[in-house]
């Protein structure tokens, strides 16, 4: 349908003329053919019927007299008519009288044995006719004739004539249509082309040429006039359209700009709202943690003061009753309770992220192996413990002692969740937290971590419990079964260690706690226990500054028992007055957190100004940020945390005094005449690690005067960073350092360079033997620089001779 619509008018005209001619000729040809067939049939019947009538008249007498020869002669004359193939005469009763068959006709086509009642029968290409023989109106017999009936030939001839006539008619029609097409459709085509060009080029100046003066010519004139009028209107419309288009374009640009601004504004508002919401949530959490931290810090401070009083007096009482076994047992029970209280305070500080940590490169696989027996004893035989450590496990930067507490607490929580029976799985592996994960988790930095997973087969936790699991004092246990600080302590410790902790749990499906600790590229460092060594006292003068009078009294009693002359002050202002009144004070032993205008760091500065050789030792159950930053003590600061034992206090005081005397010794050495020049030609390359700034500066200067090349740093971590194999001849280090100890530093550097000479300086007696079996060169503070120089040169000369 659509293809006929799209045809051109000339083609439509041609098709219409040809279709009309074809239809007319076809109908007329069919009608003529039908008429010819009917006329042929009629003429054949009339001709054969007339022949039958003649034969019936001629054969009447022969039939009446049974004159067969006469009848056969009559029928034989039909041989002159080739179209008659057979003939017969029948009696009145229908019996065959005589018959005739033309020469060459098959026997099967002989006349029928009896006549038919029908007047004629057309059988394909044969015509059968029966006519009665009458005499005086009475039937005496029947004449039969069979003739050829070539209707098919007649039809074939008619069709050929019809096809020829149809072809001629179509040719004539095509010629006529072509002429009419040129006469009628050419102007229409010209107008069509003009319209197409008009649409394509918008050129209304085009005109169609007129070829005739008839109606078509009038149509062309009207079309040209219409083009002219449309051109004028189009010019006005284009002008209006240009103005309207310009206005629409400006409006569209304005609307687009507004839409873009609105979309951008909505996106910015949504993003800003989300950022504000997250920031508000983080601020709320930060404020909450800060408030809890202040609360727990204050509680820990006061609690540790109480524990210090109780624990100190228990130790003093134990020394006064050495022979009373029953009293010693009760005192031991009380001391155990005091240690539990100290552990609780430590957990509070750990949750608040205010616990001074000593992170070192640590192999968590070793930590788990060392804890295996302890975990099995703590969990009982009914809990199966399984550990899985991945190959190629990285080291991590963590405080191993605090991590052991975290693992033990989590394991005990798992045991309680399993009601004492089940399976605990500890899994270690390397992990990578990508940017996508870090974006979804607050306070998580993308990077490489060591993952510790602790899984149990216990009762699990519903989502609402998981959401609050890290809150302090939140617990689902019955009263008396737990403090609710285990997970809180783990959370605070992991966060303070720059790590990440996550809980995965479902009711009746167990719980998995995953801890991610940052990877360390440094080798593992073995910790050295400074809690062992000789306990000695002294006769120096110590100023104790403590606002809690009970704690103050306990500290004074401990120091008095150790032989020290003790002065006391309740606050910083009173301590300043005592510093100015007393001619000699050897040590300032002060609490970090004190009331009044003078804070502890300022008090220490004043004390060093009034008494330049004074030693300073801090104590506190909660350090805040006065002397601890980033979880570590500031360089040169000495601290003993509450509650402390008398033995720990004794060792710590001797170490601090040794450092102070060492500073004085170095100042004295510097004031002496310069060492002989012979030492300057073969100086040693020394790495000096000393946290006391005065001691470090003087030691560096004096060793330099002896001709040595000195690199001095304030901590073990700085020493590791500065050390390169082959660049130093010896290491000179203090034992007690704010981060990793001097012994751990020495062992680590000796692994990197086995032939490195090590001088260990200590104010608490002799240094321990090296774990590698190679002895340290040991000096007790205060030492003389010439003594150290001789010790180093002698050791190096002996080593060179042994090598030779």
TrEMBL record:
Record-annotated Response regulatory domain positions: 541-657, 685-796
Catalysis: reaction(s): ATP + protein L-histidine = ADP + protein N-phospho-L-histidine
EC number, UniProt record: 2.7.13.3
SUPFAM superfamilies: ATPase domain of HSP90 chaperone/DNA topoisomerase II/histidine kinase, CheY-like, HAMP domain-like, Homodimeric domain of signal transducing histidine kinase
Domain of life, per lineage: Bacteria
Domain HAMP: 182-235
GO MF term list: phosphorelay sensor kinase activity
Main enzyme class: transferase
GO cellular component terms attached to this protein's record: membrane
Modified residues (4-aspartylphosphate): 591, 734
Pfam families cross-referenced by the UniProt entry: CHASE8 (PF17152), HAMP (PF00672), HATPase_c (PF02518), Response_reg (PF00072)
Domain Histidine kinase: 298-521
SMART domains: HAMP (SM00304), HATPase_c (SM00387), HisKA (SM00388), REC (SM00448)
Keyword annotations from UniProtKB, A to Z: Kinase, Membrane, Phosphoprotein, Transferase, Transmembrane, Transmembrane helix
Subcellular location: Membrane
Alphabetized InterPro entries for the sequence: CHASE8, CheY-like_superfamily, HAMP_dom, HATPase_C_sf, HATPase_dom, His_kinase_dom, HisK_dim/P_dom, HisK_dim/P_sf
Transmembrane segments: 12-35
Protein name: histidine kinase
Source organism of the structure: Massilia yuzhufengensis
């Amino acid at each position: 349908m659509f293809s006929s619509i799209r045809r051109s008018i000339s083609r439509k005209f041609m098709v219409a003329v040809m279709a009309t001619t074809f239809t007319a000729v076809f109908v007329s040809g069919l009608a003529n053919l039908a008429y010819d067939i009917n006329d042929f049939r009629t003429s054949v019947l009339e001709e054969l019927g007339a022949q039958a009538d003649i034969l019936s008249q001629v054969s009447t007498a022969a039939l009446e007299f049974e004159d067969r020869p006469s009848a056969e002669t009559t029928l034989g004359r039909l041989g002159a008519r080739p179209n008659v193939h057979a003939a017969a005469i029948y009696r009145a009763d229908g019996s065959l009288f005589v018959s005739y068959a033309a020469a060459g006709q098959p026997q099967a086509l002989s006349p029928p044995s009896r006549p038919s009642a029908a007047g004629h029968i057309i059988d394909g290409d044969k015509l059968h006719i029966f006519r009665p023989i009458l005499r005086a109106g009475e039937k005496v017999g029947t004449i039969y004739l069979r003739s050829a009936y070539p209707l098919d030939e007649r039809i074939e001839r008619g069709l050929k004539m019809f096809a020829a006539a149809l072809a001629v008619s179509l040719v004539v029609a095509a010629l006529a249509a072509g002429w009419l097409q040129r006469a009628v459709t050419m102007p229409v085509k010209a107008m069509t082309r003009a319209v197409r060009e008009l649409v394509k080029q918008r050129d209304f100046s085009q005109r169609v040429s007129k070829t005739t003066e008839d109606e078509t010519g009038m149509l062309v004139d009207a079309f040209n006039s219409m083009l002219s009028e449309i051109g004028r209107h189009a010019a006005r419309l284009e002008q209006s359209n240009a103005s309207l288009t310009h206005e629409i374009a400006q409006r569209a640009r304005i609307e687009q700009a507004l839409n873009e601004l609105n979309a951008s504004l909505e996106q910015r508002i949504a993003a800003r709202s989300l950022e504000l919401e997250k920031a508000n949530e983080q601020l709320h959490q930060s404020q909450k943690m800060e408030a809890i931290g202040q609360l727990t810090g204050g509680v820990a401070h006061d609690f540790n003061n109480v524990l210090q009083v109780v624990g100190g007096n228990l130790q003093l009482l134990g020394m006064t009753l050495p022979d009373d076994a029953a009293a010693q047992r009760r005192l031991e029970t009380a001391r155990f309770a005091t240690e539990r209280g100290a552990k609780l305070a430590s957990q509070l500080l750990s949750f608040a992220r205010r616990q001074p940590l000593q992170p070192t490169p640590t192999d968590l696989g070793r930590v788990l192996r060392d804890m295996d027996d302890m975990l099995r004893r703590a969990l009982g035989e009914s809990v199966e413990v399984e550990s899985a450590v991945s190959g190629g496990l990285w080291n991590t930067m963590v405080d191993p002692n605090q991590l052991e507490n975290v693992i033990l607490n989590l394991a005990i929580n798992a045991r309680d969740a399993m009601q004492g029976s089940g399976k605990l799985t500890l899994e270690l592996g390397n992990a990578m937290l990508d940017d996508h994960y870090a974006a979804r988790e607050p306070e998580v930095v993308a990077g490489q971590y060591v993952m510790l997973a602790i899984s149990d087969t216990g009762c699990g936790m519903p989502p609402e419990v998981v959401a609050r699991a890290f809150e302090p004092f939140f617990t689902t246990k019955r009263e008396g079964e737990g403090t609710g600080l285990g997970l809180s302590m783990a959370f605070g410790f992991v966060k303070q260690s720059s790590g990440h902790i996550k809980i995965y749990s479902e009711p009746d499906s167990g719980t998995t706690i995953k801890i991610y600790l940052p990877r360390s590229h440094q080798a593992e460092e073995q910790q050295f226990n400074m809690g062992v060594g000789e306990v000695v006292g002294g006769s120096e003068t110590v100023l104790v500054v403590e606002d809690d009078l009970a704690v103050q009294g306990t500290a004074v009693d401990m120091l008095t028992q150790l032989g020290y002359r003790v002065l006391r002050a309740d606050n910083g202002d009173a301590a300043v007055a005592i510093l100015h009144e007393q001619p000699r004070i050897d040590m300032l032993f002060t609490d970090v957190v004190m009331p009044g205008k003078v804070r502890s760091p300022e008090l220490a500065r004043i004390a060093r100004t009034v008494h330049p050789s004074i030693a300073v030792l801090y104590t506190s159950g909660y350090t805040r940020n006065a002397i601890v930053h980033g979880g570590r003590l500031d360089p040169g600061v000495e601290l003993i945390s509450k509650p402390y034992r008398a033995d720990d206090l004794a060792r710590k005081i001797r170490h601090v005094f040794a450092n102070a005397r060492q500073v004085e010794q170095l100042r004295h050495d510097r004031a002496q005449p310069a060492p002989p020049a012979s030492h300057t030609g073969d100086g040693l390359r020394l790495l000096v690690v000393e946290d006391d700034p005065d001691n470090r500066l003087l030691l560096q200067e004096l060793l330099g005067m002896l001709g040595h090349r000195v690199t001095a740093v304030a901590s073990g971590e700085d020493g590791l960073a500065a050390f390169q194999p082959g660049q130093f001849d010896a290491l000179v280090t203090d034992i007690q350092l704010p981060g990793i100890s001097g012994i751990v530093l020495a062992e680590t550097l000796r692994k990197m360079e086995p032939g490195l000479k090590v001088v260990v300086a200590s104010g608490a007696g002799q240094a321990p033997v090296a774990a590698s079996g190679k002895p340290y060169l040991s000096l007790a503070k205060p030492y003389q620089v010439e003594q150290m120089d001789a010790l180093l040169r002698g050791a190096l000369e002996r080593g060179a001779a042994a090598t030779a």
